[in-house]
User: Fold these one by one.
Assistant:
Number 1:
Amino acid sequence: MRLIAENLGGERGGEPVFSAVGFALESGQALIVTGPNGSGKSTLLRIIAGLLPAAEGRAVIEDGGDEFPSVASACHYLGHQNAMKTVLSVTENLRFWRDFNGEGVLGVEEALETVGLGGIGHLPFGYLSTGQRRRAAIAKLLVSDRPLWLLDEPTAGLDKASERRFAGLMSRYCAGGGIIVAATHLPLGLDGARELRMGD
Ligand SMILES: Nc1ncnc2c1ncn2[C@@H]1O[C@H](COP(=O)(O)OP(=O)(O)OP(=O)(O)O)[C@@H](O)[C@H]1O
């Protein structure tokens, strides 16, 4: 499987933000998107995910088969917001996403253990600390299988131990054939990742 971005251009509020962005990622490869505030990293991720229209160009999945014919069907998108309901428990939130996106290799409890949140699934999501919320949102990536992760500042709010744990998780995901595109200001510890610098 391959993710191809061809001559992508993005605009916000009718103003161009970037143009002529192109890359190709094979299964197992990762791309780190860097650049100053406002250079268009989030806009690029949202265009790739299909959440915003491209001003020009396109992003496509090749060889995704019947299961993953499009980027939208192939990706998990983790944005700045965690996309969890504060009044539902962590477990209820993750069950919702598993039912919505389809079952994955890991169950809800296993996914919570993997991000170091074992035993707190019963708590309302709104009770969690900022870093715990991010870790629960990362667990969302694990309860349904998708071959492409689009991650916007995934480690924002994480402590050092959680950063290291997430780096290991991303490495294992790529080793298993996953593709990652991650916008970040912080080093992600993802060996061998390519870099796309926006705003130059
Ligand atoms: N809804 C919107 N309407 C108009 N302009 C917007 C909108 N959302 C973002 N922008 C503008 O688009 C540009 C790119 O924003 P974007 O969030 O993609 O940048 P970024 O590189 O992700 O920034 P950061 O590093 O601060 O997260 C900015 O100039 C921003 O002000």
Number 2:
Amino acid sequence: MIEFQGLSKSYGGYEAVKPFTLSVKRGEVFGFLGPNGAGKTTTIRMLMGILQPSAGRVLVDGLDCHADAAEVKRHVGYLPDTPIFYDYLRGREILQFVGEMHGFSRSEAAGRAHRLLRELGLEEVTEEFAVNYSMGMKKKLGLACALIHNPKVLILDEPINGLDPRASRDVQERLLAAAASGTTIFVSTHLLDMAERMCDRVGIIHRGALVASGTLEELRAAASDDGSLEEVFLKITDEAGEPAR
Ligand SMILES: Nc1ncnc2c1ncn2[C@@H]1O[C@H](COP(=O)(O)OP(=O)(O)OP(=O)(O)O)[C@@H](O)[C@H]1O
């Protein structure tokens, strides 16, 4: 469903993402892990068609994320690390707007917005302006925006970072439900316990290079470490260069 084919990005002589090739299968939850500055956001921006690759390409369902960016967006839902909204629209209005942008009729968009707000536990704040939302509410509203068109692929940048335990569980349950119904999820995170619980496979990017990818068992074998994903991550990123920050 997602094919990275020799994808890379350089700024001048600096390789922020070194060429890498990776396939994420339909319905898979794939965790994209790496220390600060490793190249995760740069990779996600290329996947979203926001940044032009220096070499290689990335495909979603056979479509080139740069050349066919508009078509790719029909199939992809994106939750940025810090979702930004029109502050003086209400939560319900924002979702309605995003739904109509995806081509749904007014009543279809309203129905979808209502369902998602309820599923994500936002029903009590649907009429609040987004400017008054807490960070957790903004993340949930951002996720609702990403889900409203039932995308085949979800691209998530730190979906539960900063959420309280209940909100974090709500979001993870909603994501697992999406994965169970066949949505492919590509999630970038620093939260390794979440990645260990949710992801079928993970990739570790360090100093711009994809240094490992596979199931936790495969990573354990590669690192000769039977520990948690955190221990394996620290070992792999140590061996790949400087210690993880
Ligand atoms: N526009 C730019 N010009 C030059 N260098 C950049 C630019 N954008 C990013 N970089 C560099 O590319 C590298 C990768 O950055 P990126 O934001 O992708 O890391 P990240 O893995 O998302 O980090 P974090 O976990 O801290 O968000 C960093 O060294 C960053 O300074």
